[in-house]
Amino acid sequence: xxGKHECGADAAAYVLGxxxxxxxxxxRKHLVGCAVCxxxxxxxxxxxxxxxxxxxxxxxxxxxxxxxxxxVGADARAQSGQxxxxxxxxxxxxSWVTIQSPAFAAAAVVAVLVIALGAIVITNNSSSTRVYNAxxxxxxxxxxxxxxxxxxxxxxxxxxxxxxxxxxxxxxxGNGRPEATATLFSPTASxxxxxxxxxxLHGVSRVMVTPEPAGGSPAPTHAPVLVAxxx
Length: 231
What we know:
Layout: H1 11-15, H2 21-32, H3 35-50, H4 64-79, H5 102-117, E1 121-124, E2 127-133, E3 135-136, E4 141-147, E5 150-156, E6 165-172, E7 179-185, E8 193-197, E9 206-213, E10 226-229
Antiparallel strand pairs: 1-2, 2-4, 3-10, 4-5, 5-8, 6-7, 6-9, 9-10
Helix pairs in contact: 4-5
């Protein structure tokens, strides 16, 4: 951990998961009593959530996964004492990412690749993630991340639901009636949050969110504040 004069300097590395386990634990204890670092973490987290949405969907270049995994394996061998060929540090790693060891460098490379590729990220030979930007009624953003038919809703700067209300997630197939899900949520104080979208999304044309009475509703009682078109 750094001195008080550098308070907040570890926030970006913490959000990217680039701290050692002992440093993570120490930083979390530090966050309890440090408003500066809490604000820095909140700000960096909003940026990290938005970065994957800044690029349109692109096909992953052939061989990219193999090259990334080769770098990760080489870093692991280097840490275990095995020799590895010297490689120049990538010049496109963001300047605000503090790299403190080869393992952190590999993590940062993977993170930047995810940001650069945007909508599609290959995780193995048979799965991919596609990100769908949603239309929202507030001054923020939202997206649905779908992996093998399973979805996750991510929101930023989303206002709290009206008093006594909660946000409810709905699925629409074709032009049919919206189907209620078991997902009810409220965003954090900063307006961020992520929740699973239950069920298989194959055949779902839209994912919607409406404010509903506490406990949810069997049918929407309010116009959607979020609509993500999947097809």
